[in-house]
Amino acid sequence: MATAIPSIACLGVIGRNNNPLHVSLFPSHDPATNTLAPVRTPLQFSLLLSSTLDVFELRSRHHAAGGTGLSGDLGL
Predict the structure, then answer these.
(1) Cα–Cα distance between 6 and 29 in angstroms, integer?
(2) Contact 26, 11 (CB under 8 A)
(3) 15 vs 62, more confident
(4) Contact, 70 vs 59, CB < 8 A?
């Protein structure tokens, strides 16, 4: 999909133990074909969500070891 109208593609609910509890996928509108199609596969979104959680966990450990709190944007 070359161009897609910006939209929410994936919504994840994260549990207390830093695990995804629920993932919802939303298709994006492709103006070239005038159809709705997901930007990525469910597996790609699941892997992206898990790797993002790993990055947040590593950054929180780094800040905890340094004695500084997390910033509002988690250093992104």
Answers:
(1) 9
(2) yes
(3) 15
(4) yes
Q: Is 34 helix (H, G, I), strand (E, B) or coil?
A: coil
Domain boundaries, the chain: 10-66
Q: Which amino acid is at 65?
A: A
The beta strands (E) that lie in the chain are given as 10-14, 20-25, 28-30, 35-37
Instruction: Say if residue 10's pLDDT is above 80.
Output: yes
- Give the integer Cα–Cα distance in Å for 60 and 57: 5
Give the pLDDT of residue 4: 59
- In the chain, % of residues over pLDDT 70: 82
CA distance 58 to 55: 5
Counting other chains too, the contacts that 61-66 makes at CB distance below 8 Å and 24 or more residues apart are: none
Q: What band does 8 get if pLDDT is binned at 50, 70 and 90?
A: confident
